[in-house]
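User: I'll paste a sequence; please echo it back and then give the predicted structure.

Assistant: Echoing your sequence first, then the prediction.
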Amino acid sequence: MKYFGTDGIRRIANTELTPELVYRVAKAGAYVLAKHSEGKAPTILIGRDTRISGTLIESAMTAGFLSYGANVKLLGVIPTPGVAYLTKKLKADASVVISASHNTYDFNGIKYFSNKGTKIPDSIEEEIEEVLDSGKVEELKAPSHAIGVSENREDLLDEYLYFFRKNFEDIYENLDKENFVVAIDTANGATSVIADKVYTALGIKHYIINNTPNGININADCGSTHLDMLKKFVVANKCNLGIAYDGDGDRCLAVDENGNVIDGDIMQAIIGKYLSENNKLKNNTIVATVMSNLGLSKFCKENKFELKQTKVGDRYVLEEMIKGDYNLGGEQSGHIIFLDYNPTGDGILTSLMLIMVTLIRKQKVSELAKIIKIYPQVLINAKVSRENIDKYEKDAEINSEIERLKEEFSENGRVLIRASGTEPLVRVMIEGEDQEYITKEAKKLVDLIEKKLG
């Protein structure tokens, strides 16, 4: 698609993602959404993360919606899953999250959610794109008496806090938390407004770092994409666990008491095993993407779980979960969906599930992680020009090298090459027994792709 990638529209704010484009995307979105809500004026929620461009994009988005006659509730800074939860709870027609997730502050993005709290399907995004390119956006205007109205509803953040209290307060009240301390890194992002309140309400002892957003420090050497500071903090302060959220709070990664990374695959194994033993893992199945570690596949076989794999993107994980009636699915990046609670990845929810299992098991996190063997894996991004992003599949020399690697690693490893859905990158992933060797081979392939397609 021309505008939408695997996670909405994501571009550099104010140059590529201009207020003019945002205004048009809002009008086109309101038109398509109204068509799907029997023509009545839709009510749309807008939430954002802490980027400096957030209020600029929010203003343009609001203007576009109001000018077509849609009504808007402004939620302010709130994690993406909070917006998804409130959309469903308030029976809004749709919602928008203004965020570029784990990207640097200069990027921003637009993600549409349906009235069910799920990302809108590709078909609706395609309809919005058709309207954008049709030239009819300028004609989409509400008559004077039907212009939409916006209201500030930042108070609704308390409803999202209540969601955690409702689901976890009784459980945590009966767990021994006395000697358990968590370090939390909110990435100077959307969870900075809520994480402390949640942990305090549940009586979990915690430290918080990177919790002072200033508009440009979101994800800056912190959060789930930069774990070094958290690793050092956990070890230095003798914490039992470290939790790192990303900029918009829909995922988290963890580090154990020794500073070792607990990624999404490991968390799915730990929590999945607990759910299965308590007859709470629906159809004894875990859903993951093709990027999940070979170790997760072997773990599932050993424990007689089904592993369903989808293409990369949490929307495809969710589609498979709904189709097969599964309740646990996610990505290695820590974007995990617990469908019994919320139809989108939720970093705070994931961390509470992990802490709950750790306290119930009365084991160290490092001990829990031993149930799965993670194979060495390297992921390197080849920077290519935007128009060449899909051409690696058609280049004979690149394809020959990919086939050679796939054959070499067919027994004890895996090779996966894919174009990014959000950036001009081709992602090269190799798994194998020897970290040094797979890194060398991945770098060779990346150099070739950049030389030919950069």
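The two ends are 21 Å apart (CA to CA). The domain at 159-371 is CATH 3.40.120.10 (Alpha-D-Glucose-1,6-Bisphosphate; Chain A, domain 3).
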